Structure formats: C-alpha cells, structure tokens
Give the backbone structure.
Amino acid sequence: MAALSGSRVDNSNIRKKSGSVKLLLKKKLELILESRKNANILFDILEYLQSNQEDELLCAIRTCETLFSTLLERRDLYIGQLPKEEEALTAEYSAEEKYKIWMRHRYHDCVKQLLELMVHTSFQVKEATLCTLMKFIQMEGGQPLVKADWDESFFFPHELLKSVVEHLLQIDEDSSLLIARFQEFLEYDDVRYYVMISVNVYVSMIMQKMKEAVLPVFQQNIFSLISSVVLPDKESEMNNFLVKPKGELEEWRAAKLKEHKGAFERMWLGFLKHKLPSSLYKKVLVILHETILPHMRKPVLMIDFLTAAYEVGGAISLLALNGLFVLVHEHNLEYPDFYKKLYSLLEPTVFHVKYRARFFHLTNLFLSSTHLPLYLVAAFVKRLSRLALTAPPQALLMVIPFICNLIRRHPACKVLIHRPSGPEGLSEDPYIMEEEDPAKCRALESSLWELKTLQNHYHPDVATAAMAISQPLSVTEVDISELLDISADEMVAKAMKNRSKVVPLEFQPVRGLFGKKDIMSQYFILE
C-alpha cells in the first residue's frame, strides 16, 4: 500500500533539537502515537532496524516494542484475515480500516526485521530482540489479531512463537547463550507447551530437508533448548501463563498436564529418532532417567534410541544400559540380553577410560540384586579377576573390593575361592575369556587364581587388598564409592607422605676384595 497522506517531519530539525538517536526516536514515537497523520514516520523508525550501529539498533528495538505494544493495546491493528496492501486501495474499506490494514502490514515488517536480528553478531541486540518478540506474543495473546475458527476463550499466537523458536535453532551457529536467556520464558506453561510443539515440527522438517545428515551445531542447539523444558508434577501447579486466560481452563490444552506430557514425549522422540553426534549421546543419556523418562507417558518407546546408543560403544554403551535398566526394573520392559551386553563391555580398556568411575558405579548398581543367577554373577567375578591381571594399581584398589562385594552378596560364589583342586594358572583354566555369553563361559568351573597371583603384586596396597580372599570375608560390604576415583597421582602423593623408620635393603656385608673365597682375606682385614 502506498504511504498514507500527511505531513512528514523534518528529520534535520528533530536531530538538532534532540541531539541523539535516542531522543530522535522518542520524538518520532510520540508523533506517531499523537496523530494518525504522522503514521509515515514509522518508516524512519523501521529504517533504524537496519543500522550498523549497536546503540542505534537497541534504541530502535525498544522504540518498536513501545510503539506496537501501544497500538495492539489500542486495537489500532487490523483484526482478521489481512488483505494485501494493493487490495486495500481498491476495495471498499473505510479510512480507519485502511489505516489499520496499513499499520498491520508495518507490524509484520517490524516482526520480520526483528527475527532477522536474532542472528545478529551482538548478543545484546539478540537479547533485546528476543524480549521484544516475546512481548509482542504476550500483547497479541491479550489482543488477538486473528479470529479463532472455533469457539474458545483462549488464543495464543503460536505462529509468532514458532518463528522465534526456528530462529533460536540455528543450523550452523551456536545459540546456547540466547537459548539460556530464553529459558525464563519456558517457566510459562503456555509458552512451554507451544515451544514443544514447534520444536517437534521444525526438527522433522529440517532433518528431512537435510536427508538425515548429522548436524552437530543444530542438534546441540535443539538439545540446549529441549533439555531446559521442565514439566510440573501436578496439574494444579500449572497456573503461570504468559497469555492470561479469560475463561475456564478446562478447554485449553496448554493448561492440561496430560497434553504437556504428550507434547514432551513427541518432542524428545522426534529429536532422538535421528542419528546424533557422539558427544550428544552422552549428554542425553546422563539426564535420561531423571529428566526425561519420568515425564513420558510411555517410557518404553525409548527402546529404539537406547539400542542405537548402545551400538556407539564405550562409556555411551554403559549409559545406554543404564536407561535400559530403568525401563526393565521400573517399567516392566522385557530385555533378556541386558546382562549379556553389560558383560561384553568388560574389556581391558575399561580401566583407562575417562568415565571409569561412573562405569563401575553403574555396574555395581546393575549387579546389586541378590536374585541374579549364580552362573551370571560368577561370570562377572571371573571376568573382572582376569582383567585385574593387567589393570593399573589405582584400578585394582577398587576392583578387588568390588569382586569381594559380589561374593558377599552371593555366598555360593565362594566355590571360586575354596577350590583346592581348581586351576592354578592360565593354561589350566577352563574359563573362556573370549565367550560373550556369560552362560557359556564356564566361570563356575574355574577359580580365582588371579587374585592369588595379585597377592605378590609389586604395590603393597594391592597385595594387601588381594589378601582378603585368603581370609573369611566379612558380611558387611566394603563401601567402594571413595575408591572409584582413585588416581595414580593420589597414590604417589600418599606414598610420599609415609615415613618408614626401617627401610629394607638388599645388602650383604663385604667379606673380601674378591668374594667369599678370597685368599687375601686370610692375611688382610678390611676396616
């Protein structure tokens, strides 16, 4: 639509009077709100949204927020299906309707420019833009610009929020700081609900467009956003809305906890069904059992993701088994290969990985039940004993008590200790280390000769710990929580603090110059 007729203010005169962009924009704002004949000045304000100066941008953003918030409150924007500007000139609209149509188009221009500023290089500009757009969402919710197609008392401008979410989730730029700023808006129940819906739709669209390629930055941005979503425990706690409801809440989906859980579940499943970067697998798995599964209506739907995560290997496989363990014990999932997969993770490298402490903490949790079959526990005991032969001292100080605790929980495993006729070395051992199935490894036919061997370990603390199997085991288990994180540096520091009064040396007194049968010793004495 062409510019409305009316006088335009001389910008040069205003600059001379104001002396700054801030005062200039303030004056323009006052003129627009004062009289409709000054509406064309709005072009000047929008022009500042394209400025290269950060201060000018910030002033323009705040001015636009004040201007359109006031216009929305006054109902000065056209309500309903917005005609094109060209149609408004020819169609039979009143002067007031033409003004509102024109101003609604300028509002859309402003929103479009603000969305572009969400990827600005300055964080201050992006933050101010985000807050302004959320203010517009709040104002549109209170003064809707469209008419609902069905009879209800609630309206939420989810299309505008969807655009905000899409600009938060940049494909090739890290948006973690801006997403962190957005988290405070997720405390609003209605915002949280429509964000979950928007994320699910947008992620599906982008991944399909990119032909399921791994997009590390994009997927990290998604995780930063959706991991901030926290659902309330009770529906009675859902009373915090950005758009204030005007009627009974029973008819509004955003006010129902059941709908939130459904959207939450679809959002996470939609995100996790795509292949993730390896770094993200661990981040998801760490929070899975505490943050995600409790809020899902059907937690067992996570089985596909957990199975795929297990195939990644290493610590990620163990964390995946942690999620499977929760599903098996708390949600009655049948997964017969669980302990077989855990058994296959026990490799020599497990003592050297970064997440060794968490690995054994979870393994201890998985093997805590006293109802596990004897052959299964014996297989774990034997495999850990075999791996202990090549483990570093700091790991042995944890593994040996770990093995003893398993025997305490399952006294029938003492047969591995008290077997006089059992194997005494590797060549005689019937145990099959290469067998992946615990039921076929023949652990119960073997003995713990490995721990007997460790009683001669060069490190005295390890040798002392291994002596435990030569004595009756106490009923009380040893707390291994403090042993999980022992490092070589800590062991060296501890040894350096020890002071011994008697130092054993391999020393023999000298008996002569030429050894024991030295004939010179008969005639000379060494003094």
